[in-house]
Amino acid sequence: LLTHGGIMMLMDIGTFSLAVFASYLGLLKDDDFSAMRTWFNRKAFKKTMILFDGRCGLCGTMTVILTSFDWLQRLAFVNYHDPVVREKYAEGMPMKTLDEAMHVRSPDESMTKGFYGFRTLTKELPPLWILVPILYIPGVPFIGEKVYGWVARHRR
């Protein structure tokens, strides 16, 4: 693998190295494929959960927009008004806290909300990647929190 990987990286010999890599698949056993499935389905590939207000028109519109940006299929939207969902993804959180802002639960189980939740989402959505460095400029989080808070208070 290293030899043909080096040849592919350092020499221009067409698709020979890719053909060799493909032929290596014939040497794999069922256990190898099971191990690969386990690796691809590991915790790192869990989806980012967005807890949103299913009774809010703006929130519903935003889920449609964010879904259209989710080219890598990394997001899952859950309505926190469903008691089963709330118990599973927002255990112990009061409804008032959930109503204040969108909450984003990352695959590593960390929870962000409001502006910081949006900032977390920009890392998951390719069309928004250009915003990531801007959202980390000093002062932008302060302004972002104020703008997000205003929108959240006036969404209904």
State the low-pLDDT regions, or none.
Answer: none
Q: What form results from the Cα inertia axes?
A: elongated
Return Rg in Å: 21 Å
Oligomer: single chain
Q: What's the arrangement of strands in the largest beta sheet? A: 2-1-3-4
The biggest beta sheet reads: 4 strands, mixed
Order of helices and strands: HHHEHEHHEEHHH
Helical segment tally?
9
| Portion in helices | 40-55%
Overview of the structural elements:
The chain is of the alpha+beta class and 156 residues long. It has a 4-stranded mixed sheet, with helices on both faces. Strand 1, helix 4 and strand 2 form a beta-alpha-beta unit. Helix 1 runs antiparallel to helix 2. The longest helix is centred in the last third of the chain and has 14 residues. It is elongated. The chain starts with a helix and ends with a helix. The mean pLDDT is 86.
Could you outline the blueprint of secondary structure elements for this entry?
Layout lengths: L1 H9 L5 H9 L5 H11 L7 E5 L4 H13 L5 E5 L3 H7 L5 H6 L2 E3 L5 E3 H11 L7 H4 L4 H14 L3
Question: Could you give a quick summary of the protein structure above?
Answer:
With 156 residues, this protein is an alpha+beta fold. Helix content is 54%, strand content 10%.
